[in-house]
Amino acid sequence: MRRLLLGLAALAVTGCEIDSRILQRMEVQPKYKAYQENDFFADHRAMREPPFGTIPRERPAGNPGVTAGAVDGVLVSQVPIQLTPEVLARGKHKYDIVCSQCHGVLGDGNSIVAENMALRLPPSLVALKDKPAGHFYQAITYGYGVMPSFAGEIRLEDRWAVVAYVRALQRSQNVPLAEAPAQVQEQLRRQTEEGRP
Ligand code: HEC
Questions:
Q1: Which of 24, 102, 141, 182 lies at 20 to 30 Å from 5 by C-alpha?
Q2: Ligand 1 centre and the CA of 6: distance in Å?
Q3: Does residue 100 sit in the same domain as residue 137?
Q4: Does the model's pTM come out above 0.70?
Q5: SS3 category, 144
């Protein structure tokens, strides 16, 4: 029994040694590190430029109005993706998860976080209804002042869905009664009359 244990222990030790030798060899293989010199290239730098015309994966290619929210430095005024009830529902879903705790479920800036925040407060997004759609997209994508970017939490198309939902919030709290569907107008009139003393 004792011999068996000793044998196992010896195996375990050699096992470890072989493992660490393999790792060691990979660790010390010849390679260039950032900022090192390399005479193979005319500029003697090991670091290379990306080949001409390549686009980093994290910078999406395509219409800059959609990917950056602006064309030639001018913010796009409207949401540049096709809107459907599903897109709006997705925007609401993401807004409720990522934005509402600061800007309020209604986008009016009323939230527990806002009540307790010492720095600049999250503003009402409803009050910003005259700002172009690209302004909201860029705030989500790049951050705004003390607000960080939420590009990691919300992928590109969903960011526009959130902007579309913010537009819906802005409209829902500023719509004149005459523009509401007849049924809703009737219902609201009845409620007002019933509420009268
Ligand atoms: C942790 C709290 C917080 C969250 C979450 C948050 N914001 Fe903000 N947001 C702020 C604050 C604070 C400011 C004001 C920053 C400043 O002025 O420095 C701001 C500013 C903005 C502005 C610019 C307002 C202006 O004056 O033009 C927009 C647009 C905006 N947020 C949209 C969003 C959207 C959309 C989301 C969700 C994707 C979101 N925010 C999530 C806190 C938050």
A1: 24
A2: 65
A3: yes
A4: yes
A5: strand
